[in-house]
Amino acid sequence: MERELNQINVIPLVDVMLVLLVIVLTTATFISTGQVPVELAKAKEVSDRQDVPLMITLTSDGRLFLNDQPVPDDGLAIVLNDHPRESAVVLRADRVTVLERFVRVIDEVRGLGFKQVSLEVLRS
After folding, report:
1. Is-contact 73 106, C-beta < 8 A?
2. pTM for the whole thing?
């Protein structure tokens, strides 16, 4: 007796697609947020940058990173001296960062001669 197959079992297909979706969403989260975890502030207007700027990250506990590499407490001027002053600088600061520390970092970067200094935020 031969039985004809007139329907397709889609349950294994759905299982595989859900697993792939979880993998893609998990890896996309790690790729988009960078290496240093910070909770960015939110803003209504956000610009999209096309060039590759210097990324300075200021964590909630006051630690500094330049392009995901740790910077000593008073070493920001030393690590920025190797970069041209025309480079764009983007500051990623945790939303609970102390304002005084944030302003000191901006002042130090601007005092070194960098004119294109901006803040990275999330669109709200």
Report:
1. no
2. 0.59
3-state secondary structure the chain: CCCCCCCCCCHHHHHHHHHHHHHHHHHHHHHHHCCCCCCECEECCCCCCCCCCEEEEECCCCCEEECCEEECCCCHHHHHCCCCCCCCEEEEEECCCCHHHHHHHHHHHHHCCCCCEEECCEEC
* CA–CA dist 41, 88 (Å, integer): 20
Enumerate the domain spans of the chain: 42-123
Q: Is it the case that residue 18 has pLDDT exceeding 90?
A: yes
Please give the CATH topology (third level) of the domain spanning 42-123.
Answer: Nucleotidyltransferase; domain 5 (3.30.420)
Residue whose C-alpha is closest to residue 97's, from 70, 61, 56:
61
Instruction: Find, among 63, 80, 81, the residue nearest to 72 by Cα.
Output: 63
